[in-house]
Design goal:
Two copies of one chain form a homodimer. The first copy, chain A, is an alpha+beta fold. The first copy, chain A, is 57% helix and 15% strand. The two termini of chain A are 18 Å apart. The structure holds a DNA duplex.
Chain lengths: 122, 122
DNA sequence: TTCGGATATATCGAAACTGGATATATTCTT
DNA sequence: AAGAATATATCCAGTTTCGATATATCCGAA
C-alpha cells in the first residue's frame, strides 16, 4: 500500500473526474481498482479534498436520492453526491499534469545520478 | 520556480549526498544549479530536513572550521557542518527511489487516461 | 577601510495538511 | 436477523510547510 500525498491525491481525483462525473465512494473504489490496490484514499482524505475542489470551483455538485426498490416513499433514502469537473477544473488539471511532468523530469535527473539508481530496479 | 514537497526534498538531498559528502549551503546551491533554477530548497526547508536525516541515522555529521588566511587565531571562524550518507542512508535512498518509481508509474496510469493528458505537452 | 553581498547555520510560528478513529444511516446478502 | 457493503462526513493530535527572522563570518570593490 502506497500512501498518496494530497498533491497526488488531487491529481488522481481530478484525473478520475476528467473521464466522467462520479461520487466519493465510487472514486475511492475506482482509485483502488485502477491502481491494483496500491493507492488508497480514505474517507478522511477524500471528503475534505472534494469539498475543497468544490469550494475552488473545480467541480460542480448535485445530490441524487438513491431509493431502494419498494422503499418507504417518505424515507430520506441514501444520498449520493455527484461531482462533475468544471471548465476551470479541466484547465487546472491540464496545468497540474504539465507541472507534474516537469517536476518528474527534473527529479529524475537527480535520482539517476545517484549510485542507488541502478539497484532500485528490482 | 517549482516548489518541492518534503518527500521530494528528501529524495533530492539524499541523491545529492549519494554522490559525496556535502554541507547545507552547498547542497542548496547544488540543487538550484542541477535543476537549472527550477528547484529551490531554502534554509528553513534545508536545516530541519538535515537535522531529521541525522536524527534518523541516515547521515553522519562533522564540523569543519573554515578559517580565512591570516585570520585571528582566536576567532571561532565560520563553521561548516558536513553531512555524509551512512549505510542506512544508502539503503534508505535505494528504497525511496524504488518507491518513487512505483508511485510514478501508477500515477502515470491515471494521468494518461485523462483527456487533458494530450494538451499538457506544450 | 569600510560597506555590501555572498557564505553559512539555525529557529520561530501561523497556517495547512495528514490520517486513523469515529459517527451516522442505508442497502444488500445470506 | 445479522452482518457486510454502501455512502457521506467530522474530529483531532501530530506533522509539515515556508516566509520571516536571527546571527555571524568571509570576500571583493570602491
Amino acid at each position: 500500500m502506497l500512501t498518496l500525498k494530497q498533491d497526488h491525491s488531487q491529481l488522481v481525483v481530478l484525473s478520475v473526474l476528467a473521464v466522467g462525473p462520479s461520487y466519493g465512494y465510487a472514486i475511492s473504489k475506482d482509485i483502488a481498482a485502477r491502481s491494483e490496490g496500491h493507492f488508497k484514499l480514505s474517507p478522511s482524505g477524500m471528503y475534505p479534498l472534494l469539498t475543497k475542489l468544490e469550494k475552488n470551483g473545480l467541480v460542480t455538485t448535485g445530490w441524487e436520492e438513491v431509493k431502494a426498490a419498494g422503499a418507504d416513499p417518505d424515507s430520506t433514502g441514501r444520498r449520493r453526491k455527484w461531482y462533475t469537473l468544471s471548465d476551470k477544473g479541466h484547465k487546472q488539471l491540464a496545468k497540474r499534469i504539465e507541472h507534474h511532468r516537469q517536476v518528474q523530469s527534473i527529479l529524475d535527473g537527480f535520482v539517476s545520478q545517484a549510485p542507488e539508481s541502478e539497484l532500485a530496479n528490482g
